[in-house]
Design brief:
The complex is a heterodimer of chains A (251) and B (195). Chain A is of the alpha/beta class and 251 residues long. Chain A has helices spanning 51-59, 77-80, 83-89, 102-105, 177-191, 195-206, 224-235, 247-250; strands spanning 2-8, 12-17, 31-36, 39-43, 67-71, 94-98, 114-118, 123-126, 131-136, 146-150, 155-159, 212-215, 221-222. Chain A has a single domain, classed as Ribonuclease Z/Hydroxyacylglutathione hydrolase-like (Metallo-beta-lactamase, Chain A). Chain A has 8 helices and 13 strands. Chain A has a 7-stranded mixed sheet with strand order 1-2-3-4-5-6-7, with helices on one face. Chain A has a 6-stranded mixed sheet with strand order 8-9-10-11-12-13, covered by helices on one side. With 195 residues, chain B is mainly α. Classes of the chains: A alpha/beta (251), B mainly alpha (195).
Chain lengths: 251, 195
């Protein structure tokens, strides 16, 4: 599992992904870790198949027992189907996830970890020194969905927004936005159901000071590419599969 | 513990539901027989104790099957837990292997997993012994039912106009007992093979 440091000051951000030992035919995912003193937060820790690689990778950055919090942006298996295993690894931890998915996520096994419901309007999580904001991103793509904003590191973890489908050995950052668009278009048009939700999110994201936009799949955006992404996403027509007649065109 | 075990246990729970239905049919047959014997009066005097026995056997079978089902379901759940615990243990093991020198905290987590696995397996073994005892008990009763159906046929021949009705009761008892015995024997074999 490759790890890349995104921010390192009083607290740290690390992204994990591009696992060369990943099981074939499962989508590549980015997992994130925020280490803040003796408290650490895992963001979208991934699926069951990634668990061993993730656990050993994380152990290189913090003590496992110091993982006090886990965040799940939504309910998908690539996001959090490893929950039952984290439940054994860090039974003292708390899971912050949309209230909407509590009864569903617990199907993955959540006997010891405390489920902390995030209300629709979002909320905050204070680690040791850093205050993180849960930003509503409902219908992007899941009906109960949040992103995480760190105003000190100026990083927005954007879940499936900004995601791209590409080769597992792809670089961690976008280096040519124009050529990257082709890898994102189908994903956003097909997975994101609502233009209204998309535009509402873009408006909200524009109010944030973002250095790095960090999606759960594909490459991360930094600097001017963040604005380029927001402009591109705003102009994109999503939810195109209604009626089923445009599916073939996109594929 | 074979992974096939939890599939077989779950399959037994499903099959035993049919035994429950058959036990209900047995009780209904006994009630029917009682009504016929009442109408037949002295002609079916030998049949009446048999109907009481069939009725009691139907109720006993039903009670036993309820306990068997509950026990089998508990074992099926534990068998699934066993698979999940083994899988968790393997995944923690892979993480440990990837860490040079291992990780002390993870070592503790793995220790707890192994303890839980051992306890779970003891409970499965205990449940399995109980389940096989219960299957054996019900099997004994079904052998008795076969004898009763033969006796019922003999008694039915004395019942004149009511003979046909009472023969049908004997048929039902015989058929039900054969069905239950066949299911029980299959479950018994499946559980012993997979354990």
């Amino acid at each position: 599992m490759r790890s890349t440091s995104l921010y390192s000051n009083k607290h740290q951000w690390v992204v994990f992904g591009r696992d060369p030992a990943k099981v074939a035919d499962i989508i590549d995912t980015n997992q994130y870790l925020i280490v803040d003193g003796k408290r650490s937060l895992l963001l979208d820790p991934g699926g069951i198949e990634n668990f061993s690689a993730m656990l050993s990778a994380v152990a290189g950055f913090c003590d496992i027992e110091q993982i006090t919090d886990i965040f799940a942006s939504h309910q998908d298996p690539d996001i959090i189907s490893s929950l039952g295993l984290w439940d054994r690894a860090v039974p003292h931890a708390r899971l912050h996830a949309p209230w909407l998915w509590e009864g569903f996520l617990k199907h993955f096994g959540c006997h010891s970890i405390e489920y902390v419901s995030i209300p629709d309007e979002g909320g905050n999580l204070m680690l040791e020194s850093v205050n993180l904001e849960f930003v509503p991103a409902h219908y992007l793509h899941s009906s109960g969905n949040f992103h995480v904003y760190d105003s000190r590191a100026r990083i927005l973890f954007s879940g499936d927004v900004g995601a791209a489908l590409e080769a597992p050995e792809a670089p961690m950052f976008v280096d040519d936005f124009a050529s990257h668009v082709g890898k994102m278009t189908m994903f956003h048009q097909r997975w994101m159901p609502s233009n209204a939700a998309k535009n509402d999110w873009v408006k909200r994201a524009r109010r944030l000071d973002i250095d790095i936009l960090a999606p759960q799949h594909g490459r991360l955006f930094r600097g001017d590419d963040v604005k380029r992404f927001l402009d591109w996403f705003e102009a994109l027509d999503v939810g195109i599969a209604v009626g089923g007649d445009k599916l073939a065109e996109v594929a | 513990m074979q992974e096939q075990f939890f599939v077989n246990t779950a399959a037994c729970v499903g099959a035993l539901c049919r035994v429950q239905q058959t036990a209900v049919e047995l009780s209904l047959a006994a009630k029917n027989a009682k009504a016929i014997a009442y109408r037949a009066g002295t002609k079916a005097v030998g049949f009446k104790p048999l109907t009481d026995f069939i009725d009691e056997m139907g109720r006993d079978t039903s009670r036993l099957v309820t306990e068997i089902n509950a026990t089998a379901l508990r074992i099926a759940r534990r068998a699934v837990d066993d698979v999940r615990l083994q899988e968790a243990s393997a995944r923690f093991g892979r993480a440990q292997d990837a860490l040079a020198g291992g990780n002390h905290y993870l070592h503790g987590v793995q220790g707890k997993l192994h303890d839980e696995l051992a306890t779970n397996r003891q409970e499965i073994a205990r449940g399995l012994r109980r389940l096989l005892d219960l299957l054996s008990e019900i099997s004994h009763r079904m052998r008795a039912a076969a004898v009763i159906s033969t006796r019922a046929r003999v008694e039915a021949t004395q019942a004149g106009d009511y003979e046909k009705g009472l023969q049908l009761v004997a048929d039902t008892v015989e058929r039900s007992a054969a069905t239950i015995r066949s299911i029980i024997s299959r479950c018994d074999r499946q559980l012993r093979d997979a354990a």
